Amino acid sequence: MELKNQPSLDISEDLLEAIRSFPITREVEHCGVRIAVAPFDIYVDCPQCGARVKVRSFSAHGEIEDVFDAVFEWMNQPSAQEVARRRQMPSRRTGDPAPDDAQGAETRRATGTRPPANPELP
Ligand SMILES: [Zn+2]
Question: Is the pLDDT of residue 50 over 90?
């Protein structure tokens, strides 16, 4: 298959809004029971009948999960997560360790300063 270079991508505001409002969990129904599923899981085991249910369609036309998958794939590159983290925290001082930074936590313990309770939550 030969791919042509696209001069510009058609990215609609609808797509951007769909990404912004993408739910953290999705619900599927099996055996009359609603099951909460992580949105990118492909299968879920029904707690009622034990069946393995496919919860992603992988249809021929693109779906929004494909956009996320592409971004996750991009984020697997070395340094990509650091680049993304910088973009996500524009107001933070760049020298601050991330909350999940083990070495930073070690330093905070050693100096007796406490990390903020939960800086990510509003
Ligand atoms: Zn079931």
Answer: yes
pLDDT of residue 48: 93
Rounded CA-CA distance 41/121 in Å is 25
Q: Looking at the domain assignment, is residue 55 inside a domain?
A: yes
Looking at the domain assignment, is residue 7 inside a domain? no
Separation of 44 CA from ligand 1 center, angstroms?
Answer: 10
CA of 39 to the centre of ligand 1 (A): 19
Tokens of 111: 């100096």
Structural domains in the chain (count): 1
Q: Output the CA 47–ligand 1 centroid distance in Å.
A: 7
Residue 40 belongs to domain spanning:
18-90
- Does 94 score more than 60 pLDDT? no
**Could you tell me the distance, in angstroms and rounded to a whole number, from the CA of residue 55 to the centre of ligand 1?**
13
pLDDT at residue 100, rounded to an integer: 54
Domain-embedded: residue 114:
no
DSSP 32: T
